[in-house]
Every structure is written in structure tokens, then in C-alpha cells.
């Protein structure tokens, strides 16, 4: 096995003594830094490479923490001025994951870069820490590489806002809607099939053009 396979096995055993100590030290280090900062190298090189990261010019890693827990409704003094069904303030849950929020904040901070993917690197009682992979679409090393030319097109601006990163649920991104997925993948197309009954017997016959 290669070195990345061993690193992957280490990160799978997060409750081992070694990983518990490493994660504790990493979280202490991340708490001393700003909420969003550039990382010199990926903390999990195996995970970053599986998500598309390369150690070459044009690739950037940003580390960000997102506060855990629910999301309080931003109303003054708890006054919602509405019907009782909408009076909730404190026990509200955010519809998206914290990882998607981290991708969005990184993409908003680095407007000229494209968000490729993100992954989890640690958490404590207050924050969850993620590392976001970003690509410079104007770098020559990216524009001249056939494998990365796709992300330089304008249609891929702010992928993180449209649910195209790891932080979002993938069933929100394929096909546009749940009904469209159902129609295209599960339902049988019978546009070219004629159904008719034979007189007297009631047998069903399918006639295909």
C-alpha cells in the first residue's frame, strides 16, 4: 500500500489514542488562528488528492471554522411581528450543512477563485473546522491543462452557492428537482407504446411502433 492509504486508515480510526491526541492539538492550533486563513498545505493530503487537489501552481487551501449548533432567528429582542407559528427564535436549525456554509464563506472571501471541494479536519465543542480547495481560473498552469480547463469557464463561477460542492446534499443538484429525478430515472417512458384491449377477452396488448 502507498503512503496515502496508510494516512486514510489513520483518519478512519478517529477514536484511537494517536488520532485523539492529534485532533486535540490541531483544534487548539486552529483556535489560535483567524476564522478564515490560508493553509500552507492540506492537513489531510490523501483526502485532498481524492477531491481533486494537486501540489502545483493554481491550487490554494483555505481553512475555516464554522460555529456549531442551531441558527437563531435574527429579529430584534425576539419580536417576530407575525403569526404564532412563526414565533420561533432559538431552536431553529439551518437547512444546509455547516460544510456548505464553510464553502460559501471561503468563496465569498476569495471571489476570484473557484471552489473545487472541501473536507472536514476537526471539531470541538464550539466550532467545526473545514479545509476548502480553491483553484485560480486565470493561472496559466490551470488554463493550459486539459484536466482543469473546465473550471475556467464562466458557467462555473461560485459553484459553492449553487450546491455543487461536497458540503451540499447531492440529491439537491442532479436534475433540478426531485420530480425531475423521478421522471428521468424511475418512470418508464411509454410515449411510443400503444395500449389496447382485445374485444371479448380483456387481454392487454402492447403495440410498439
UniProtKB/TrEMBL annotation:
What SMART domains has UniProt attached to this entry?
Answer: Ribosomal_L15e (SM01384)
A family per Pfam: Ribosomal_L15e
Gene Ontology BP, a term:
cytoplasmic translation
MF annotations from Gene Ontology: RNA binding; structural constituent of ribosome
GO cellular component labels: cytosolic large ribosomal subunit
Keyword annotations from UniProtKB, A to Z:
Ribonucleoprotein, Ribosomal protein
Q: How does it assemble?
A: Component of the large ribosomal subunit. Interacts with IFIT1 (via TPR repeats 1-4).
Q: What does this protein do?
A: Component of the large ribosomal subunit. The ribosome is a large ribonucleoprotein complex responsible for the synthesis of proteins in the cell.
Q: Which NCBIfam families match?
A: PRK04243.1
Q: Which PANTHER family match?
A: LARGE RIBOSOMAL SUBUNIT PROTEIN EL15, RIBOSOMAL PROTEIN L15
* Similarity-based family: Belongs to the eukaryotic ribosomal protein eL15 family.
What protein name does the entry list? Ribosomal protein L15
